[in-house]
Input
Amino acid sequence: MRWDNLTEGATGPAALFGADSVVTRTVDTPEFRGITFHEVRARSIVNRVPGASRMPFEWTVNPYRGCSHACVYCFARKTHGYLDLDTGIGFDSQIVVKTNAPELVRRELASPRWTGAHIAMGTNVDCYQRAEGRYRLMPGIIEALRDRANPFSILTKGTLILRDLPLIREAAAVAEVGISVSVGFTDTALWRTVEPGTPSPAARLQAVRTLTGAGIECGVLMAPVIPFLGDSPEQLRATVRAVAESGASSVTPLVLHLRPGAREWFTAWLGEHHPHLVGRYERMYAGGSYAPTWYQRMITRQVHELAAEFGIGPGGHGDRGPDRRIAVPERPGRPAPAPGATQLSLL
Output
């Protein structure tokens, strides 16, 4: 692995970790069997999204690399290659843990240069994957965001988010907080094969019920809609109905995209489990990482029509009301917040 190239002896943005900061652990318990943790001391944690990205946010926090959810389509697989880690099984089982993430968030938000922009979490790998049950990084991160009244959003497939519900409620009382749970389908046979390390779709939708019941507005990102496997009218109808019954504030479909790294792993899985579909996928994704525009529009239209039928908004969180904020103690060198400054949100 290229740890040496990523420590503070390196130059430029490649210096991600402190020197001699990597500790590798294996945990021989049923929950973590087969998983190796690489504990690192990161040098920074609040990262700017590249300008060319399609993402609707500018800043992210990612306390983990790799993900035990083991979703065969995960677009983040390629990032493991930067460490010379395998982007297939290695991505699922070799988890990089930034153990100092909470203290880094607190420090970086206190910088005079930080302007209080929205921070998105769970947009690369899931911050509530199984490793979070062991390392408990998210409570400290949410506390730091709460204490600075900094807006943030979380996207997750993990029901472990409910552990931090009290903290999320405290943060939502002082800043804009957006929560979305990812549920692309409710087909249990499909779930077991493409998302083997995640809680079931039913468990995720129960988490949505709990969040909304606690007064936390929660949307569902219906992602991914998988061509030829999860896109039949019956499957779409069943999923949107279940989302509506969960009390979600919105449902937003997103068709499977296959970036380099994920594309190869997904194609290998497809060849093993659904070889008759390999040719159809090659034709559908011949133009690049995304399905054709006509197909994306067709799925979006169908989901929006079903959402209207079941009485759920197709996207967005609606009118959240006025921004909520608390007074943040001034610190030396820290400029006072501008009157009427706008709080940003992900969704």
